[in-house]
Amino acid sequence: MISGYISSKLIDEGRCLFDHMPDRDVVSWNTMISGYARIGQMDEALVIFNSMPEKNVVSFNALITGFLQNGNVKSAIELFERMPERDSASFSALTSGLIQNDELDKAVKILLKCRETEDKREDLVHAYNTLIAGYGQRGLVDEARRIFDQIPFDHNKRKGDARMFVRNLVTWNSMIMCYINSGDVFSARTLFDEMTERDTFSWNTMISAYVHLLNMEEASYLFHKMPNPDTLTWNSVISGYAQIGNLRSARQYFTRTPYKNLVSWNSIIAGYEKNGDYVGAIELFIEMQVEGEKPDRHTLSSVLSACAGSTALRQGRQIHQQVTKRVIPDLPVNNSLVTMYARCGAIVEAQTLFNEMKSQKDVISWNAMIGGYAFHGFAAEALELFGLMKRLKVLPTYITFISVLNACAHVGLVEEGQRQFESMVTEFGIEPRVEHYALLVDLVGRYGQLEEAMGLINRMPFQPDKAVWGALLAACRVHNNVDLARVAAEALMTLEPESSAPYVTLYNMYADAGRWDDAAEVRDVMDRNNIVKQTAYSWVDSAHSG
């Protein structure tokens, strides 16, 4: 009864029951000490402790834990040193509490002193392990290694020998984790290779470290050396191969996974979606349901993104129904829904969902809606929503400005596009990316300002890509600027030496201008470079075009 009151934080009711008990056992006394300590009433906890007719090690541990939870390090250490006997929990309580109070050096000194005097020294190993982890959490790897090195490495320790102060598996695993968390995978691997005994945690820690570095060669090597990979191991390798875009290997490991769980399915579905195989992601989702695995928010978010990528509105609506039935939509799921409807052109549905989110929006929500408007030609709505976004002090990202420039391009707002491009830098401190330049080149070039477009390209702080030169070439084609088209086409020929598109466009422009010698030269260059004309591109029909 007392413990029930204490766990419910009804300390006064618990104390009343305690005071009226005719016979109090040591458990009742200890429960009251823990209860007062938990709510910070250490004076009352100490009164109870001092009134006890008979104390045991749990009584001391409870009071020490209370002192440390309430920041009274001095009293905790004094009580610890007065203990007539200590158990493993005593060392762990003191060490954990000192770590929480950032008194790691004091913990080291106390443990060193105990090591010289205590008989049950394996209890100390648990405390040393806690200390190694504590130093590691604070990034103090050298200090953690110093503690690790103080624990002897005994190859011949007998199982069940409780009086041996030697490294155990937790010691090794804790130190390896310290190295990995600090980014020193080389030292972690060196330590891993020195281990004479490893458990599943050891293998998974090391494999996950290589997966995190996207070093799938080493991750796979360790995977195949591991005696009995568990589901976590399989999932880690699946995720790693998906992250580097090797969906074939990811799928092979997924198929071979003996006991798939929800994480297994989420990893492979997300992998397909992130790598642009949207149809594959949707098919896997269907297979998952056939297998009887129930999706969660992560699954539904990934498959909604796949529907958005493949503009599969019908499937997207079906997934929306599952969202309604299975989960309470959180922000990522709502964002995925808005994105899906916006990308699929169901603007009214996207707008309805966006408005229903009210204050629960983030910049991704705004980007999804603005991007949907811009992509489907609702430029005025996109720019109006962007204005509202700024008025509500939601900071835009580089993605926001891609949509804004796209909206301007749709309706030929050249000056507005230039102004937004400039405000991105001056007002929001966002460095323009190649996508922004490509859109602005397309905008000014499409409306005849070809020299301005070329000036933009020349002022770019990095090398233009094929999208930038492609935008200029398309604008030159519209406005029949053959000389500038040649500059753009030659740049594209360098960037995409196998593509026939710039050759064909330049040839056709020369032909339209009646410059047949130049057109013939383009054909000759194509022949010399073994460029095969793609089916989608055609030569202009002309009697002169041999």
Plain-language structure description:
The chain is mostly helical. The N and C termini lie far apart (100 Å). The longest helix is centred in the N-terminal third of the chain and has 16 residues. The radius of gyration is 34 Å and the shape is elongated. 71% of the residues lie in helices and 0% in strands. Helix 6 packs antiparallel against helix 7 and helix 21 runs antiparallel to helix 22.
Give the low-confidence spans: 539-546
Percentage of residues in strands: under 5%
Share in helix: over 70%
**Class per helix and strand makeup:** mainly alpha
Choose one word for the global shape. elongated
Overall residue-averaged pLDDT value:
89
Whole-Å distance between the termini? 100 Å
Counted beta strands = 0
Write a short abstract of this structure.
The protein is an all-alpha fold. It has helices at residues 2-7, 11-19, 26-38, 42-51, 57-69, 73-82, 88-100, 104-117, 122-137, 141-150, 169-181, 185-194, 200-212, 216-225, 231-243, 247-256, 262-274, 278-290, 297-309, 313-326, 331-343, 347-356, 363-375, 379-391, 398-411, 414-426, 434-446, 450-459, 466-479, 482-495, 501-512, 516-528.
